[in-house]
# Entry
Amino acid sequence: MAGNGGSGRDDGGPPTGAAARLQKLFEGHRLTPTQRRIAHCMVRRASDAPFLSSVELAELAGVSQPSVTRFAVALGFDGYPALRRHLREVAPAEAARPAAASEANSYQQAVRAEIENLRHLSAALLADPGPIERAAGLLARSRPLPVLGLRAASAQARGFSYFAAKVHPDVRLLDESGSMLTDRIDAAVRAGATALLCFALPRHPREVLDALDQARAAGLTAVTVADSAFAPVAAHCDLLLPAAVGTGLSFDTACAPMLLGRVLLEAMCDVLPEAQARLEEFDVRAAERGLFAE
# Structure
């Protein structure tokens, strides 16, 4: 998991191995959104990044080949060949280009990419569960708990809010933009909220950045589940929890962010003393009402 350096509060642990080396290389550079996309792609493909041609990397990141060249120059290299040469020099001596994947159609490739996203998330949670635990504590203590998600992220925010309301006494879904969003954030602050959970997915609406800035200015601690440590929201939140999205289809897929939200909710249940009692009470009432056809 990765924390955000925006405020210095609640930093998460860094990735390990080849991904950590790459992320360290990118830190401290002001990258454009296109360059952040390339950086994110390289971190995800850390094991074979030293062996990718500029054309291959451009295709994987969904950018132009000249963008890859400009990315390398932005990092201080003469061009992409110099960047790739550097990556090969710092990679373990025994590293070799992974064997080519077996033939698969575009649908299978998209599924396999999501599986890799989940494996990466699993490895991050194993390496350092601290950010999840800190986020769970912050969110569990906030009464009410506002949950923000606009456009592509609205489904993630709504799903989290639905289940969180079963164990948290006051969850407030914020999935409407415009002036109403400002009003609802202000109302949550007046009601005693101390933290806000945000789901932020590509393409990142500017209103999400503005809402996070408003929330932090009002004293809320902003916890954000985003698609990458290089996402535009990184500088606008206090604790960033990254989970990659799939980009192999016409529309992004968000299995890893959804699962990370459920993991975060599970961690909240561990620190909410009344969580189990609330769940049992709901089950009793659901049975009395014949709510489910089971």
Notes: The two ends are 38 Å apart (CA to CA). Confidence is low (pLDDT under 50) at residues 4-14, 98-102. Residues 136 and 268 are 5 Å apart (CA to CA).
